[in-house]
Design goal:
Shape of chain B: globular
Strand order of the largest sheet of chain B: 2-1-3
Order of helices and strands of chain A: EEHEEHHHHHEEEHHHE
Helix content of chain A: 40-55%
CATH architecture of the domain at 61-244 in chain A: 3-Layer(bab) Sandwich
Helix content of chain B: 40-55%
Pfam families (chain B): Sod_Fe_C, Sod_Fe_N
Radius of gyration of chain A: 18 Å
CATH topology of the domain at 61-244 in chain A: minor pseudopilin epsh fold
CATH superfamily of chain B: Iron/manganese superoxide dismutase, C-terminal domain
Number of domains of chain B: 1
Order of helices and strands of chain B: HHHHHEEEHHH
Number of strands of chain B: 3
Binding site for Mn(2+) (chain B): 54, 102, 191, 195
Number of helices of chain B: 8
CATH superfamily of the domain at 61-244 in chain A: Iron/manganese superoxide dismutase, C-terminal domain
Subcellular location (chain B): Mitochondrion matrix
Domain Manganese/iron superoxide dismutase N-terminal (chain B): 29-109
Number of helices of chain A: 9
CATH topology of chain B: minor pseudopilin epsh fold
CATH class of chain B: Alpha Beta
CATH architecture of chain B: 3-Layer(bab) Sandwich
Largest sheet of chain B: 3 strands, antiparallel
Strand content of chain B: 5-15%
Strand content of chain A: 5-15%
Distance between the termini of chain B: 39 Å
Strand order of the largest sheet of chain A: 7-5-6-8
Largest interface: A-B, 19 and 20 residues
Oligomer: heterodimer
Structural class of chain A: alpha/beta
Protein name (chain B): Superoxide dismutase
CATH class of the domain at 61-244 in chain A: Alpha Beta
Largest sheet of chain A: 4 strands, mixed
Chain lengths: 269, 230
């Protein structure tokens, strides 16, 4: 996620690989005298790496028009509006901004917007036309090592998605310290990069993500995602990058003895 | 405390092979309440499609899962399996809360021809003016809280029985109002989960909140208020 230097908000048809998640692009802040400038650092709205009808019939064009074109766009625009007023948050990469505004569980007002912008960018890239099927070679090997089998992983992923209470996301993450993959669920807009978790895939389990196409049938939505949408190419790309790149990760205090499957803001109050 | 629970456990174990009827506490199962109006009767404020899905699918699912969780709880208590008892708490709060909240919600709304949308009269009308200045001011505050709620949840107008005043509160997910204060009684709850409005209003929750007041059943809220503040 690069920090884009823009004068106006425009959509960039970038087919950027997930390398951009870990690339650090810190823009220096101007110290000393305040310059009067019309150039500010804003975030842009990336288009998904496929046409809006590219995921049909499993995710409709209509759903993407609303989900990406209105909701995701809204987060980016609202974030930019907030950043206009902030000197302190100037020049952060999106990763850095998510972690900083998470503020160790006492989130700043910007957190929701930047986290949701991040989460949705990642979501579009977690899917592809003609997706589904199974990962190959390295990633498959890692999944088999950490879950026993691909079937076990799939069951765990589906079960986690369907057992989420309220709004949230399901993730396949790489836990660097534990050196293993795991499936985690997060509430509302929480992102595992605020803890020890490098996202490999995510799935939006907010109702808006599936309601237009599947109404209340969450199980069918998750199943269609696994069978036809999930991009194992993107996941493989990312996993290889994670292993090579050093990424700063904030550690969070876990309640002793409990698996950190559920991440709530309330835990940090 | 440990001795007493041990004794209770022995008693329960002895009764393990007997049928459910001999348990000290009968297992209550819940069922979906009927709506006192047709699904389409709240249009155009809330579409018939939403009402049907909301009632037949969402509310029904909470009830089904609540019953299941209660049954599992019952068994776990029988076996003295405290770990399962503890694990079930969140499912009970979520699904039980979902059942309670939606049961209140169906009574909070009514078709226009049955006085849905008619401003509150009686003592609740007075209390609103006293606590908030005017009905418009109350609506504005509730809508602001409802729109600002992140994720899923409810926005409530409640009566604080102890302090004897009206309050506006939000709860997350399916937490009932009482989780915000033991003395709080729900008068009016508005569901701001996306399933409550998405098909019709898409992302524009504020529009849903603006329009729902056209079908709010103040008669019911007033009835609860008068009973609870007596």
């Amino acid at each position: 996620m690069a920090c884009h230097l823009l004068l106006t908000d425009f959509t960039l048809p970038l087919k950027s690989p997930k390398l951009s998640h870990s690339r650090q692009q810190r823009k220096g802040r101007s110290n000393g005298s305040r310059k009067v400038s019309t150039t500010v650092a804003y975030y842009g709205l990336k288009t998904p790496p496929y046409n809006l009808d590219g995921l049909e019939p499993y995710m409709s064009k209509r759903a993407l028009e609303v989900h990406w074109g209105v909701r995701h766009r809204g987060f980016v625009e609202d974030l930019n509006r907030q950043l206009r007023k902030s000197d302190i948050l100037y020049g952060y990469t999106m990763d850095e901004l998510v972690k900083t505004t998470f503020n160790n569980g006492n989130p700043l007002p910007e957190f929701n917007n930047v986290a949701e912008a991040w989460n949705h960018d990642f979501f579009w890239e977690s899917m592809q036309p003609g997706g589904g099927d199974m990962p190959k070679l390295g990633l498959l090997g890692q999944i088999e090592k950490d879950f026993g089998s691909f079937t076990n992983f799939r069951e765990k992923f589906v079960e986690t998605a369907l057992s989420l209470f309220g709004s949230g996301w399901v993730w396949l993450v790489l836990k660097r310290q534990d050196k293993r993959l795991a499936v985690v669920k997060t509430s509302n807009s929480i992102n595992p990069i605020v803890w020890e978790g490098i996202p490999i895939l995510n799935l939006d389990m907010w109702e808006h993500a599936y309601y237009l196409d599947y109404k209340n049938d969450k199980a069918k939505y998750v199943s269609m995602f696994m069978n036809h949408l999930v991009s194992w190419n993107a996941a493989t790309d990312l996993l290889e990058t994670c292993k090579l790149t050093a990424t700063r990760i904030c550690r969070a205090p876990y309640l002793g003895g409990f698996e950190p499957d559920i991440c709530f803001i309330e835990r940090y109050r | 405390m440990a001795l007493r629970s041990l004794a209770t456990r022995k008693t329960l174990t002895l009764g393990l092979n007997s049928t459910r009827l001999t348990q000290s506490r009968a297992l209550q199962t819940f069922s979906l309440p009927d709506l006192p109006y047709d699904y389409g009767a709240l249009e155009p404020a809330i579409s018939g499609e939403i009402m049907q899905l909301h009632h037949q699918k969402h509310h029904q699912t909470y009830i089904t899962n609540y019953n299941k969780a209660l049954e599992q709880l019952h068994e776990a208590i029988q076996k003295g399996d405290f770990s399962t008892v503890a694990k079930l708490q969140s499912a009970i709060k979520f699904n039980g809360g979902g059942h309670i909240n939606h049961s209140i919600f169906w009574q909070n709304i009514a078709p226009i021809r049955e006085e849905g949308g008619e401003p509150p009269k009686g003592s609740l009308g007075w209390a609103i003016d006293t606590n908030f200045g005017s009905l418009e001011s109350l609506i504005q505050k509730i809508n602001a809280e409802g729109a600002a709620l992140q994720g899923s949840g409810w926005v409530w107008l409640g009566l604080d029985k102890e302090l004897k005043k009206l309050v506006i509160e939000t709860t997350a997910n399916q937490d009932p109002l009482v989780t915000k204060g033991a003395h709080l009684v729900p008068l009016l709850g508005i569901d701001v989960w996306e399933h409550a409005y998405y098909l019709q209003y898409k992302n524009v929750r504020p529009d849903y909140l603006k329009n729902i007041w056209k079908v709010i059943n103040w008669k019911y809220a007033n009835g609860v208020y008068e009973k609870e503040s007596a």
